[in-house]
Amino acid sequence: MKTLIKGALVLTMEKEEAFCGDILIDRDRIADIQPCLDAEADEVIDARGMAAMPGLINAHQHAPMSLLRGFCDDLKLMDWLDKKMLPAEARMTPEDVYWGAKLAMAEMIRSGTTAFADMYIHMNEIASAVEEVGMRASLTRGLVFLQPDGGRRMDEAMDLVRRWSGKAGGRITTMLGPHSPYTVPPEPFREIILLAEQEKLAIHTHLAESKEEGIKIREKHGRTPTEYLHQLGLFDRVHVILAHSTNLSRRDVGLLKGMRGGACHNPVSNLKLGCGIAPILDMAEQGVTVGLGTDGAGSAATLDMFEEIRAAAWLQKLDYGDPARLPAAEALRMATAGSAQLLDIGRDVGTLKAGKKADLILVDLRKPHLQPVHQIHSLLAYCANGADVDTTIVDGKMLMRGRRLLTIDEEELLREVSARAKRIVEGI
Ligand SMILES: CSC[C@H]1O[C@@H](n2cnc3c(O)ncnc32)[C@H](O)[C@@H]1O
Ligand SMILES: [Zn+2]
């Protein structure tokens, strides 16, 4: 099956400049990208007036938390988590998680996200939903060791790895997910790192999200959360996604130097929960890869990565009092190539190049808020929204065309989620 996209304004994210051109997709891969391609194809997409760019990659989230969107906002992180999220999650059935994940994927595809890294519970159901819907995902069973059933959770984590790594035509990969420095004591954390090393798995965790976390970890371990994980050997032994990484000192940033993987910046969640501004430019200066993610819709409110791109750029400009900080093209790079490296799939996705997987989106520029087209990077980073995405393609397969979802029955989805969401939060 060959698809030819004709006449798009192409941002490959490999080179600085965009150009008007054509993209040929052969099955799951990009076959060619040129200013003008005269190729045979089964389907031709007229993309004049649209920008073609790599699909956005959400490097940290909890998809089924979309069922908890708007249920309890404006709380402090620890109260929000302990008093509201954990009790609600304890009531979620595997079927709830399946439908919550589908709800999140409908929103992601609609707003131009093609791949995501997820940490949650009932991961078999999330994996089945990913396989069915056609997205790309790195899945992780979240490991919290506050209750005595940590062993069961470890079994579930390895069950996910064995059943799903490389499945769905290679679209699903897996990692291990110790939740955070404050929910995993040193011994199990060390064991997880060792297991990851032995099984050649990456680790996905939360780090230094709030000031309270810093206080808790200092009281318990006499160090910052970053020093604590560094002492456990996390940064020199395995590939890691560090979600948030908000409250890091200069010394903490230095400890990340040379790490594999990097930090996932979650600016909207950090803003909304009042957690602080992550020092992402200091990290980048130390050679640490920075990607972008939304976190779950329970904290971030939406899964629109265009909002994260914009918030990331604006926060750095505000923090430094300098509009030149984190320019538009750099913020877009974080949400594409940067996040791809965090998911450890940068060889295949994150930029548009012949030979890479065909994960890309078309953004319709024929709208008042996206005209005129002086600087396409500026338009996409500062003016575009998820709702401007016209077409979403993953692994060469169309998941949305002309804003119609092709692998999800939206009416059925909306019917399913409203009753489930109500039941889960009742009385909490
Ligand atoms: C055990 S699965 C993952 C676990 O993480 C919780 N979670 C969601 N958002 C955040 C956040 O911003 N900080 C810390 N933990 C978070 C989620 O509710 C699940 O219980
Ligand atoms: Zn999170």
Automatic annotation (TrEMBL):
The keyword Metal-binding applies. Zn(2+) binds at residues 60, 62, 206, 295. It comes from the Bacteria. Binds 1 zinc ion per subunit. GO terms for molecular function: 5'-methylthioadenosine deaminase activity; metal ion binding; S-adenosylhomocysteine deaminase activity. Substrate binds at residues 89, 141, 152, 179, 209, 295. It catalyses: S-adenosyl-L-homocysteine + H2O + H(+) = S-inosyl-L-homocysteine + NH4(+); S-methyl-5'-thioadenosine + H2O + H(+) = S-methyl-5'-thioinosine + NH4(+). HAMAP family: MTA_SAH_deamin. This is 5-methylthioadenosine/S-adenosylhomocysteine deaminase. It comes from Paenibacillus pasadenensis. The gene is mtaD.
